[in-house]
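quick q for whoever's on today - can somebody do inverse folding on this one?? i tried earlier but teh output was garbage lol. tokens:
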């Protein structure tokens, strides 16, 4: 699909969301629980939607917050709940709704000082720090964020005491209970007036423990000594104050190039499809920072809740897949305290370059379905040294092999790029060129196509038997996977693998689209053939099910 004519250009006025209407719709539109589209639905990253569409409104948040309060009580979680939010316009109204319900249910809610913004990795870090060495009074958390989604969206995700995204069993239980409450007209919601609720919350400094702990996971001294010139664009997100503190604390040559916080995100350049989207892995959304690349040795972008990273060198924006491979190659050679059996975690739609690097390093590969929740236990136990996914989300262990975060952390991934440059004298881009010289060049793509709920259901239940071919793009098929090799969990789709290529097809968990991921180490033309044959497999499945 060709890029929108205005992709990469400053957002025009008619592309901006009407923020007053968005916020008023949060309170005035009543979702219809009989409409499946307006019910609570937890995808791979919590519940997301827009107040304008009746999919993210006050009723949803009241019901979800009540369900979370009941869930943590049933699970014996009696410690504080760390509540964070990002800079989307709907985040603060949802934050207030959650506070009103959680406090009325007797939950001890800890919030950022001055009701400030709180990035996802800081919430995960706070949960793990509080729970370290405890068996009782454990903490959990909520982050109110739709991540990189457009300005009109809102999001709500729950992190249990392990600090990472809740697994499917937990989110399903919360979703089902929230929909019961929604269907019952919210009669079961316990709620205090906001003034009373705010008197009950406790303010907490999320930033200082996180920033001071960074020297235990990244060589901050090396970055400072090398004088790496760093530019940072928080893309109007919650990491702004964190980056300021990092620059002050470690005396880095670090400049925040965009300090604007604007819920319309009017300063953004349009993404590939012509929409405003704070996707730090998109060259179109990152056009402003890319334009400054010659001013810095390295530039870093984050999405609004800072769980994603974008790495810009003088060569331009790095592909997330490329950077993940570089991280794996560097970390497992520069973290001597990590255990020899510590493995590499990747999602099955991430580049096979990571597979080749892990094999060369003699490290076990742990390949899982899409969703960072599958990495939580491995990071917490130290069994995984690094875990990453192709959508620019990753985390890794401290230098001593202990857990840092069990959620994605775009801040430390940015700082790691600076460490790599400082310690080796070569940029991450240059390191990836070395990997290509050793393992071959990869051509990779992801295609999104509109899909009905019925088509998504069919795609999510594909079986190996539906692929009758024995070859893919001229190569013998080595595997037809519906379960991930690392943890044997269903992938909600299908992955077909050959010696030098693969494709995966799966429905989106948050949008009415399906996705085809594909990669070839035999060049762009071979990749196009892989994609064509993947599309034929999907079309055949739709036709066989009568939903074509």
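ok took a stab at it. sequence:
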């Amino acid at each position: 699909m060709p890029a929108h004519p205005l992709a990469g250009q400053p957002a025009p006025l008619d592309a901006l969301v009407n923020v007053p209407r968005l916020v008023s719709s949060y309170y005035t539109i009543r979702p219809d629980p009989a409409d499946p589209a307006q019910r609570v639905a937890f995808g791979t990253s919590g519940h997301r939607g827009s107040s304008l569409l009746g999919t993210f409104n006050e009723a949803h948040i009241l019901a979800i917050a009540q369900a979370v309060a009941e869930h943590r009580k049933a699970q014996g979680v009696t410690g504080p709940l760390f509540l964070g939010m990002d800079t989307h316009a709907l985040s603060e109204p949802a934050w207030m709704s959650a506070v009103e319900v959680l406090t009325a249910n007797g939950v001890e809610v800890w919030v950022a000082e001055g009701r400030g913004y709180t990035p996802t990795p800081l919430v995960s870090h706070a949960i793990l720090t509080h729970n370290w060495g405890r068996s009782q009074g454990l903490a959990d958390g909520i982050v109110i964020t739709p991540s990189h989604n457009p300005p009109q969206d809102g999001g709500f995700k729950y992190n249990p005491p392990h600090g990472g995204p809740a697994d499917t069993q937990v989110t399903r239980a919360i979703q089902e209970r929230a929909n019961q409450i929604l269907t019952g007209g919210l009669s079961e919601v316990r709620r205090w007036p906001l003034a009373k609720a705010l008197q009950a919350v406790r303010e907490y400094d999320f930033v200082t423990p996180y920033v001071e702990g960074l020297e235990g996971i990244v060589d901050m001294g090396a970055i400072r000594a090398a004088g790496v010139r760093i530019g940072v664009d928080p893309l109007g997100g919650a990491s702004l104050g964190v980056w300021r503190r990092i620059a002050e604390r470690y005396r880095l040559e670090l400049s925040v190039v965009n300090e604007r916080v604007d819920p319309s995100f009017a300063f953004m350049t349009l993404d590939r499809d012509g929409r405003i989207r704070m996707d730090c892995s998109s060259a179109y959304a990152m056009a402003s920072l890319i334009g400054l690349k010659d001013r810095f040795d390295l530039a870093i972008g984050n999405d609004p809740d800072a769980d994603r990273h974008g790495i810009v060198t003088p060569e331009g924006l790095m592909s997330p897949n490329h950077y993940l491979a570089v991280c794996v190659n560097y970390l497992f050679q520069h973290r001597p305290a990590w255990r020899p059996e510590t493995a590499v975690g990747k999602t099955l739609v991430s580049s096979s370059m990571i597979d080749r690097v892990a094999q060369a390093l003699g490290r076990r590969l742990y390949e899982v379905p899409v969703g960072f929740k599958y990495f939580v236990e491995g990071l917490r136990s130290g069994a995984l040294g690094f875990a990453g996914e192709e959508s620019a989300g990753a985390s890794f262990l401290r230098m001593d092999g202990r857990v840092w975060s069990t959620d994605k952390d775009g801040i430390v991934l940015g700082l790691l790029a600076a460490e790599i440059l400082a310690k080796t004298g070569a940029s991450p881009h240059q390191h990836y060129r070395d990997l290509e010289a050793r393992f071959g060049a990869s051509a990779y793509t992801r295609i999104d196509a509109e899909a009905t709920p019925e088509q998504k259901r069919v795609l999510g239940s594909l079986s190996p038997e539906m692929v009758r071919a024995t070859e893919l793009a001229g190569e013998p098929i080595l595997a037809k996977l519906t379960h991930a090799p690392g943890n044997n969990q269903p992938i909600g789709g299908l992955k077909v693998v050959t010696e030098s290529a693969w494709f995966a097809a799966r429905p989106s968990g948050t949008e009415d689209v399906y996705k085809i991921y594909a990669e070839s180490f035999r060049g762009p033309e071979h990749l196009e053939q892989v994609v064509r044959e993947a599309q034929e497999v999907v079309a055949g499945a739709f036709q066989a099910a009568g939903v074509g």
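fwiw The mean pLDDT is 96. also The longest strand covers residues 443-450. so keep that in mind when u check it
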